Amino acid sequence: MTAAMGAPRQRRRLGLALAFALVLPTLSGCDALRAQKADIFITREATIFLDPPPTETGEAILTIENDDDAEHRPLIIRLDEGTSMAELEVGEDGRLDVGRPIDLEFQGDGYRVVAKLDTMRPYYGQSTRIKTVVHVHLRQGMYAIVDNLPGGIDAGTFAVFEVTA
């Protein structure tokens, strides 16, 4: 083998070694690997069920499934300290204000929007479930997952959970 033929192999090995050197430290400290996971179900009774509810601060991966035969628009909010869902005012259209569609963050009266999602289509018993996955960062406090379509909050289609540590 000539020196010219060995050079591409050495560059390839060096490239692989460099790739491993860069990737391994990030994998060991990656929050997504340690993120808590929760499954959220919107049931046919128009209730929201969390299994298990997120309780720890940090990254959370939430899988939301619409098992109802009606549309729902999930919204995740962090309640201001001392505020309950009963104290939140919905607009004339029966929804919480989430700001403009392009707003990444929005502070409402008594709450802060953590994640606003698109409307989930109804589930009609087909084999494919209606799911979406949300990656959020949770701080200590009270949170709620609500159906932000008109009338959803007034009908009680929300679930409250507390992140403690």
For the biggest sheet, the summary is: 5 strands, antiparallel
Radius of gyration: 22 Å
Given the C-alpha coordinates, what overall shape results? globular
CATH architecture of the largest domain: Sandwich
Provide the CATH superfamily of the largest domain: Cupredoxins -  blue copper proteins
Put simply, the count of helices is 2
- Classify the beta-strand content into a percent band: 25-35%
How many separate domains make up the residues?
A: 2
- SS content category: alpha+beta
Arrangement of strands in the largest sheet: 5-6-4-8-9
Low-confidence stretches: 24-31
Query: Distance between the terminal alpha carbons, to the nearest Å?
Result: 61 Å
Element pattern in H and E: HHEEEEEEEEE
Q: Which fold name is given in CATH as the topology of the largest domain?
A: Immunoglobulin-like
How would you briefly describe this protein structure?
This protein has 2 helices and 9 strands. With 165 residues, the protein is of the alpha+beta class. It has 2 domains: 1-31; 35-163, Cupredoxins -  blue copper proteins (Immunoglobulin-like), CATH 2.60.40.420.
How is this structure best described in words?
The chain has 2 domains: about 1-30; about 35-165, Immunoglobulin-like. The chain contains 2 helices and 9 strands; from the N terminus they run H-H-E-E-E-E-E-E-E-E-E. The termini are far apart. It has helices at about 5-30, 30-35, and strands at about 35-40, 50, 60-65, 75-80, 105-110, 110-115, 130-140, 140-145, 160-165. With about 160 residues, it is α+β, with helices and mostly antiparallel strands. Residues about 25-30 have low confidence and may be disordered.
